[in-house]
């Protein structure tokens, strides 16, 4: 999750610099869930994006056998040979399937200095066997949701390492009044239970889920905190709505491979 709302003013310049590591593509520090618990099931689509050294930097969700959705600020400017995706394991150090990226597609509206557009797709070099998650069709205030992530579990920046085991946190979509500088048309204000639980450094790109007909569906991906406090979970978090961006997402991942051009007629 990024450090603060991207629509920053000059008065917040110092805070912007403090949290630059949240959004820098090469950053080694990214958040997870404060107040979460160990995952109580295996999420086949859960994706840990890791540097080639094995260092966790962001989360994501498998939405097709060869496509992962994440936050734009996680992958913009990142070299394809600089990271891998471990998919379908609650343990970010082993198990599941490890895939290499072949393409990064950042939403054209993404601007680090403005709200909205913080979503990207990573095409994998080869399809994986793990079951993808479906995109949700509705996102309404009051909807119970679940967050997943491997971000740090203590609230202060650099206060600890990312946990090895995936964490989950049950929360809900709340009114946008709780989130500063949010674009309500394309972003979700996600509650911080008890005023002290929520996404933190390292959770960026991780999924927000809803349970529909006994199946998980993807509502959003972690973008940034809903206030300017460097301490995590002191306010609701802002998640990019995949519901709002579903047309763009589906339009990219469902594009069929181009047919080979027909041979020219003989002379």
TrEMBL record:
It comes from the Bacteria. One of its GO terms (molecular function) is serine-type endopeptidase activity. Keywords: Disulfide bond, Hydrolase, Protease, Signal. Pfam families: Trypsin (PF00089). Residues 33-254 form the Peptidase S1 domain. CDD domains: Tryp_SPc. Residues 1-28 form the signal peptide. One of its GO terms (biological process) is proteolysis. PROSITE patterns: TRYPSIN_DOM (PS50240), TRYPSIN_HIS (PS00134). Belongs to the peptidase S1 family. PANTHER family: FI18310P1-RELATED, POLYSERASE-RELATED. This is Serine protease. It comes from Prauserella cavernicola.
